[in-house]
Amino acid sequence: MTQSRNNDNFSRRSFLKVAGLGGAALCIGLDFISEANAAVIKPHEASLAAIEFNPWIIIDPTGKVTIIDHRAEMGQGSYHSVPQIVAEELEVDLKDINVEFAIGNEKKYGGQVTGGSSTIRGSYKNLLKLSASAREMLTTAAAMAWSVPVSECYAQSGHIFHKPSGKKAGYGELAFAASKLEAPKEPKLKKISEYKLIRKPIRRIDTAAKTNGSLVFGLDKRIPGLQFASVERDPRFLGKVKSFDASEALKVPGVKKVFKVTMGYYEFNREGVVVVANSTWAALQGRKKLKVTWDSGDFKHWSTPEILKKQGELIQSQEGMPLKTQGTPTELLAKALKKIDVTYQTPYQSHCAMEPVNCIAHYKGDSVEIWGPIQAPGWIQDYVSKKFGIDKEKVLVNMTFLGGGFGRKAMTDYPHEAVAISKEIGTPVQVIWTREDDATLGPFRPGISYRCEGTIANGKIEALKFRMAGQNNDHWRGGKKTEPNRSTSEGFLKPYYESIKNLSISDVLFETSIPTSFWRSVYASTNGFAYESFMDEMAHQAGTDPLDFRRAHLQEERCQKLIDKMEEVSGWKKRKKNEGYGVAITECFETTVGQVVKVSKNPNGGVKIDKVWAVMDCGWYVNPDIIHAQVEGSIVMGIGAATTHQITFKDNVVEQHNFYDYPMPRINEIPAIEVHIMENEADAGGVGEPGLPPLAPALTNAIFDLTGKRIRTLPFKLSEV
């Protein structure tokens, strides 16, 4: 496959080169009338409509096909999946496609936030339509050239063939004529049964470049005149720089300048002292020589025991703000002769992507250009534009490959800080965070406490009541504190609302000065543990098999089929003595995932995880290998969050610093994982995140099945169960 080895974005300069081809190239794109119903357009049609043209597919006179990927690639596979979709309907070989990242421009490319497992589910219909339109235009151009009916022509491997005569023409030969044709409004799409590429386990096109080191991640990016910076930031988010002594830092060879810098996190600020040097090494060594005095006295300092205690008190004493209420759960629970009333707690977590946060910025006075591992270019354009008083159109954001993101690299703080430093020094600068910065400074997944109450009647749930106390990520972005966290029910399956007639889910306001934000699967990663663990407790109270209990409460057809599959692949009905089996089913980003975990006693003490079966119903999908990888990665991450690591605070300062005290699961700790994908033609759901939430509850439910011990607080050590 032809790839852009420096992975430059599809910039204005690149488009000018394409435009220089005149009508010789076929360039088609999408006019985002709405995200769900975009119109296929060509350059002159955009001009007539007074909109900026956005090329998504470019076929030049040589037959080279360039696809513009509008989303970031952070391991989840969009860099491969988008071309695989296009290649299917365009009828080209993947090896003949060049892929380039789009520059940040929501007017041209629609939403570009790589998060919420939204890339495929939000774009696949438009991509199929766009590709099929290009294929039909090329087919029509060939039929016209040969003076034959279009019905006698077909596309294959970048060529149009005439069935009766055997004539063929390459896409490059037809690009000029095709560019003059009107784009079809409703091209004919293939049936799923006709796919040759989609739903096939095709090897990812970025694997070779990742393994041979030629791929450019944010840390690898270089531009002329680049300086390097490292920042000593206040370990307490809202603290201030009281004073600093840079005399020793300035003696380090290569260090050029030291000054105070402010990094914005939404409407809040974090202060620090930056060391600018001619190399990353010099900047880091200079930073070690800094002497900084912090002023952190004007806000409350929290410690983890206090956070857990306060959250526990709140969910016991307050009803909270209801997000979802139906029936009369409070009244029924109040008069119930027998009910379950328990508390679950989950910890704060750091993102700890393999590539620490970094960013290059060049402030040019009336414009800004940014390069880096970025999940949300549009958000950064908005934020930088506002902070520096520059037109959004003049804030150019270039996406490199990301060495992991998990939500952290959707934030606007680190690009803002890089722009502020560049403005001060007058040159482009790369700001690099250390692993310790990445682990200790946040933002973090919020730690949350849950109170779960329920009662059973006639073997089914009569009333259910959830209360959640944890930081609301929306509050950092100006969300109303009088409204419940909109993610309080995330992870809880919608079909439960049909079978549980008396139900309430509420958010109890809890705040600290600790910055929080998205973490893979967001609130579903914590909600799922509480809600699905409690479902298991309710099943035990009802005296019903946990999987049968869920089957009785999830009557929707797709859920029933998913449960059938879980039962089949795991051998659920054939469980043996001295084996613990646990189940959990969660939903997020329009995808449902069920997992069965098998555990047994470890001869060396505690328990060990023997196997995880995962069944995913994501509807329409692209590549099963990528889905398997994402689910496997989610399970590994879920094991870590449940059993090996957490972020704790003492006096508002993080106590963990690196992998030595925030340990990741080791390869010898990972069980066998078996992934199954449900086959149907429903609309696409997400893939990158939904595989994580079921792991923790399925695991703890399995431990209960084996030992009779309920685990309601994460993390826990398998060796100590």
From TrEMBL:
Superkingdom of the source?
A: Bacteria
The segment(s) forming the Aldehyde oxidase/xanthine dehydrogenase a/b hammerhead domain are 212-298
The record's section on InterPro entries has: Ald_Oxase/Xan_DH_a/b (IPR000674), AldOxase/xan_DH_MoCoBD1 (IPR008274), AldOxase/xan_DH_MoCoBD2 (IPR046867), AldOxase/xan_DH_Mopterin-bd_sf (IPR037165), N-heterocyclic_Hydroxylase (IPR052516), OxRdtase_Mopterin-bd_su_IorB (IPR012368), TAT_signal (IPR006311), TAT_signal_bac_arc (IPR019546)
Which parts pass through the membrane?
A: none
Q: Which Pfam families does this one have?
A: MoCoBD_1, MoCoBD_2
**NCBIfam families in the cross-refs:** TAT_signal_seq
The identity of this protein, by name, is Xanthine dehydrogenase
Q: What is the lineage of its organism?
A: Bacteria, Pseudomonadati, Bacteroidota, Flavobacteriia, Flavobacteriales
